[in-house]
Design brief:
single chain; 10 strands; 48% helix
C-alpha cells in the first residue's frame, strides 16, 4: 500500500512538472512573438525582403500637430523611403481635407529637399477621395499628381472662422467683463463688437498666408497651371476637371502608377506607425494618468 502511494505521488509530481514546462514554453513563445512584432521591419503587413519596390506614404485625415499626419512622422517616412536602396520611387497617397498650413509647409519643403538630394528618385502624389487646401499644398511639391475622375481637388485658400454673440448677450441681459493687458489682446472676442482695425489686421495675416500658399503651388506646378482667376479662390474641382486646369496631371491609381510610371509594382508602406511597444506604453501612460487624476481629485485643498 505504501509503495502504491509513493508511486502515485511520483506520477503526480511528473504530471505537475510537465504542465509547468508546457506553460513556460507557451509563455516563452508568446514573448518571442511580441518581440518579433515590436522589432521586425514590417511594412504594410509584409516584411521588407530587399526587392525593388515603390514606397508608399499615406497622408490621410486632417493635417495637424500631434496627429498621424503631422509633419514629423511623414518626414520620417520620406527619409526612410529615400534611404532604402531598393526604393525605385515614392508615392504620396493623399486623402485629406487639409489642415495646418505650418505642418503642410514642413512636409512640402521636405519633399522638395528629398527630390533635390535624390534627383533620380521620382515622387508622385496619388489622390484618392479628396486632396484639398493643405493636402494640395503638399501634393504640389510632387513630380506629378494623379487623380480619380471623381476625386475632389483644390480649395487653395485660407479660412479663419468664428461666431459673434453680442446681440445674444444683450437680449439675455448679460454684461461682458473682460480685462486685458495689451490693447488688442481680446482680438476677435465673440462677445464683443467687431473692431474694424483688428479685422483689417487679421485679414492681412490671412492674405499673407494665402500668398505663401499660392507661391508654393506656383513653384511646384510651374507652367502646368493654366491662367484662370479662380484657381486660387478657394474653389474645388473634380479630378476630371482639375487636369485641364493644370492642378493635376492625369488619371491614375497607386498600383497603376507604381507599375506603369515608376516601374516597381511591389508596394511597401513607409508610413510610420506606432509599434506594439509604443501602444503598450501609451496605454500604460494613460492608465497612470487616470490614476494620478483620481489621486489629485481625491486630495485637494478646500
Amino acid at each position: 500500500m505504501l509503495e502504491k502511494v509513493l508511486l502515485a505521488a511520483v506520477d503526480e509530481q511528473r504530471r505537475a512538472r510537465r504542465w509547468s514546462n508546457f506553460f513556460k514554453l507557451l509563455l516563452l513563445g508568446y514573448l518571442l512573438v511580441v518581440l518579433l512584432l515590436v522589432w521586425h521591419p514590417f511594412k504594410d503587413g509584409a516584411i521588407v525582403d530587399g526587392k525593388n519596390h515603390t514606397a508608399v506614404i499615406d497622408i490621410a485625415g486632417v493635417i495637424m500637430e500631434g496627429a498621424d499626419t503631422s509633419a514629423d512622422p511623414i518626414i520620417d517616412g520620406l527619409q526612410a523611403a529615400a534611404k532604402d536602396e531598393h526604393t525605385k520611387g515614392i508615392i504620396l497617397r493623399m486623402n485629406s481635407p487639409g489642415g495646418s498650413p505650418v505642418q503642410s509647409a514642413y512636409i512640402y519643403d521636405e519633399v522638395r529637399r528629398v527630390k533635390k538630394e535624390h534627383p533620380g528618385l521620382p515622387i508622385h502624389a496619388v489622390v484618392e477621395d479628396i486632396c484639398a487646401s493643405g493636402c494640395y499644398y503638399i501634393a504640389a511639391a510632387a513630380d506629378k499628381i494623379y487623380v480619380n475622375p471623381s476625386s475632389v481637388v483644390g480649395s487653395i485658400g485660407v479660412i479663419m472662422s468664428g461666431f459673434g454673440f453680442v446681440e445674444t448677450l444683450n437680449k439675455l441681459g448679460v454684461e461682458r467683463r473682460t480685462m486685458t493687458a495689451g490693447a488688442h489682446k481680446a482680438i476677435l472676442d465673440p462677445f464683443s463688437p467687431v473692431n474694424p482695425e483688428e479685422k483689417q489686421h487679421v485679414q492681412g495675416v490671412i492674405d499673407n498666408v494665402h500668398r505663401l500658399f499660392i507661391d508654393a503651388v506656383k513653384q511646384g506646378r510651374g507652367d502646368r497651371l493654366k491662367d484662370n482667376p479662380d484657381l486660387f479662390s478657394g474653389l474645388l474641382w473634380s479630378g476630371e476637371q482639375s487636369i485641364p486646369l493644370g492642378l493635376t496631371d492625369a488619371v491614375g491609381t497607386t498600383r497603376g502608377v507604381a507599375k506603369e510610371v515608376i516601374g516597381a509594382e511591389e508596394l511597401v508602406n513607409f508610413t510610420p506607425r506606432d509599434s506594439l511597444l509604443d501602444r503598450l506604453a501609451q496605454r500604460m501612460g494613460a492608465s497612470a494618468g487616470r490614476a494620478l487624476h483620481s489621486l489629485v481629485n481625491d486630495v485637494s485643498l478646500r
